[in-house]
Task: structure prediction
Amino acid sequence: MKKLVYLLLISIILLISCMSNNHHGRIRVSIGAEPQSIDPSFLSAIDSMIYAVHVFEGLTTKDKNNNIIGGAAESWDISEDGLTITFHLRDNAKWSDGKDLIADEFVYSFRRLADPKTASAYNFLITPIKNASKVLEGKLPVEALGVEAIDDKTLIVNFESPTAYFLELFSIPIFSPLREEFISDDWTFSPDTYIGNGPYKMTERRPDEIISLELNTNYWNKDSIIAEKIDFVIFADVSTAYAAIKEGSILYSYRIPSANIDLIRNEGYLVVKPSLGTAYYALNNTNRVLKDKRVRRALSLAIDRNYIVENITKGGEAPAAAFIPYGLKDVEGDFRENGGAYYSIKKEDYKSNIEEAKKLLSEAGYPNGKGFPVLDFKTNPGAGLTIAEAVQQMWKENLNIDMTITQEEWSVFQKNRQTRQYVICRADWIGDYLDPMTFADLFVSSSSGNRVGYRNAEYDRLILEAKNTMDNEIRMSNMHKAENMLIGQDMAFIPIYHYTSPSMQNPKLKDVSVDTLEIRRFFYSYIE
Result:
């Protein structure tokens, strides 16, 4: 059987190699498994966003150095009260089929994102816009959303309160314009309908195999784009991607086989970039057993995070003693450094953590794990499985709790996680903009990003107040208080570690742009 699998793997690599040898000038990379969706309104993970950011462009975008610049909008005006932004679209902004881009196509996209019938996993990001929350709740029609096309080239966006990070917000591909005439259940699968306004256009899509792009010659900034053709090769198994990197048939892989990270480093393929993200274990707060915050805290304290980052991930990750990561500004200094830890992650304190966990579990009615049900843990294949196996052993040895592990294919896993069809599952969050709110806003009761079912009226109040003021003292104070409730008091979920962003890259491939939000852009890449 092993021989058969090996021969199959070699056959796949040889096939890819032959393909790449027949297509000169292409950059061949892999982002991972088949994405759940590449429809901008339904983006729910970094891999999907990477595809979309190559085909679509929002009102703003990022340059080679990850600075925010004008995208489809050439300029914008901000009202004195900060509540209204008037965007002026470029005269030469076009779709890949040559049609002029117009403001109404942003209005359609924004309304589609806010429509509760769309049920977008990322729709909470639109809540700073006037009336968005009421539209999402079904209390107002989508036409009441605070966006308006004055003419073909002028878009007005009204906000509930001054939103300091609006330029970063509108560079996220979920805020891309859309052509209503192309939208259908399967519009993203054909180059004839997956029409974008970004640097590239789709030329081919074969599910579970490849997504091919080429330069959009109608793109307003096409002269700045270096890579003319990009093949995104779909690999469900990171081991196959690793073999393809070594063989030379792809030059980049977003995913890495963590078990081989030392070998990959020694071979010269490992590239580690900063990341604004946190890996955590989602706990279904509606579960009969996990409703008890003493149980949730006990499970958290029994995890040896230092073991995980030192022996499994090994990419420079930091053990997490809170949710919001390092790298975000407070009124003064770093938000995380100022906020501190909600439990000790010092190696010398792990034994005392275990003792506290045992005490909490006993108080919850499960002395030495007696009577505690078997926990079901869901993950997708990859490093998440290895970490889960380690945690499984920790909970058994320290708390006498058993856990089963279920692996699910990536798109299935994403759907079950989003719809809370799990008891415990692997989860993470990578910030969308450089403000602590990109993390704090996630767990308000109404947020579609609230994967754990956390409900706390005071948390909601603090975040709403923080969003409705420009007073940074109040904003930051409220977010610190809210995080203390979320993790310090309620342990709504279990932070595991703060991310770095490791990838595999052939040294011949140059100028891959990676921002701290982990979006990869191959616009300026070339082969040396």
Summary: The CA atoms of residues 6 and 26 lie 27 Å apart. The radius of gyration is 23 Å.
